[in-house]
Amino acid sequence: MLELDHVTKDYVGPGETVHAVRDVSLSVEPGQFVVLLGPSGSGKSTLLLLAAGILHPESGCVRFDGQDVSHMKDNAAAIYRRRHLGFVFQHFNLMPGSAVDNVALPLRLESVRPPEARERAREMLGTVGLEKRAEHTADQLSGGERQRVAIARALAGSPRVVLADEPTGNLDSERGAQILKMLHDLCRERDIGVLMVTHDSRAIDFADRAYQMKDGQLSPINGSATEHTGMRS
Ligand SMILES: Nc1ncnc2c1ncn2[C@@H]1O[C@H](COP(=O)(O)OP(=O)(O)OP(=O)(O)O)[C@@H](O)[C@H]1O
Ligand SMILES: [Mg+2]
Predict the structure, then answer these.
(1) Which residue numbers in the chain have pLDDT < 70?
(2) What is the pLDDT of residue 86?
């Protein structure tokens, strides 16, 4: 479904050129949970931006259902993101407005009419256990509740793949583990692929495949579910 094929990305800066992603190949299939760990600056966020068609690679390409999305014009790339992707980012703050407004947003962008968008947004909030917080604004929610709204928003448009960058980075470890499990279970149920960046090595336990990223290169981590069993659990 989502496939990075020998992708390379350099940033040409004021001083040296940064080789942020070096010859990375990776795929995410429906219902798969793929985890990337790695130190700060190793290229993890860059890799997600490449997967989203926001950055263009120097070489290699990113395909979605066999179609090259890495050299698309901005408009076409925006449509690709809206149709097929959901995002949960640590610093991807909620918009002003209530939880239900936030979750309804991707549906509104897909021209779902407001009453139906709100109805479906409420349902999604119920799925993440926030039916009673639907009218709260972000500043009236706890950190974990905000992340659950972000998950509900990411899933509301029925994406095929969710890209998640440190979705539990702001949370204490117990809440972080709960959110991780929720994201995993919801995506597995709905056959949504997940590509997630995290510093939390417990994510390896949930992963169908896990990779360590270092200096822009990926190496598989033994111990992820696939490595144990050879198949999805
Ligand atoms: N716009 C940019 N221009 C120049 N260099 C950049 C740019 N964005 C990132 N870099 C550099 O590219 C490398 C990879 O950055 P990236 O943000 O992908 O790392 P990361 O693994 O997500 O780190 P963190 O865990 O801190 O979020 C870093 O060395 C960073 O300094
Ligand atoms: Mg990052």
Answers:
(1) 91-92, 223-233
(2) 93
User: If you take atom 16 of ligand 1, which residue's CA is the nearest one?
Assistant: 43
> pTM surpassing 0.85?
yes
Among 207, 124, 115, residue whose Cα is nearest residue 158:
124
The tens digit of pLDDT for each residue in 149-187 reads: 999 999 998 999 999 998 887 777 888 888 888 889 989
- Whether the Cβ atoms of residue 36 and residue 47 lie closer than 8 Å to each other: yes
Least distant ligand from the CA of 39 = 1
Q: Which residues contact 91 (CB under 8 A, 6 or more apart)?
A: none
- Give me ligand 1 centre to Cα 97, in Å: 31
- Ligand 2 centroid–CA 8 distance in Å is 17
| Bridge partners, residue 87, by sequence | 163
CA distance 233 to 68: 30
Among 17, 46, 195, residue to substitute to test ligand 1 (most atoms within 8 Å of Cβ) = 46
Give the separation between CA 183 and CA 162, rounded to whole angstroms: 9
**Which CATH homologous superfamily contains domain 2-95+159-229?**
P-loop containing nucleotide triphosphate hydrolases (3.40.50.300)
How many C-alpha atoms does 114 have within 13 Å on its Cβ side? 1
Give the bridge partners for 24, in sequence order. 7
pLDDT tens profile 130-155: 999 999 999 999 888 998 999 999 99
Tell me the C-alpha distance between 216 and 59, whole Å: 14
Taking the C-alpha atoms of residue 42 and residue 48, their distance in angstroms, rounded to an integer, is 12
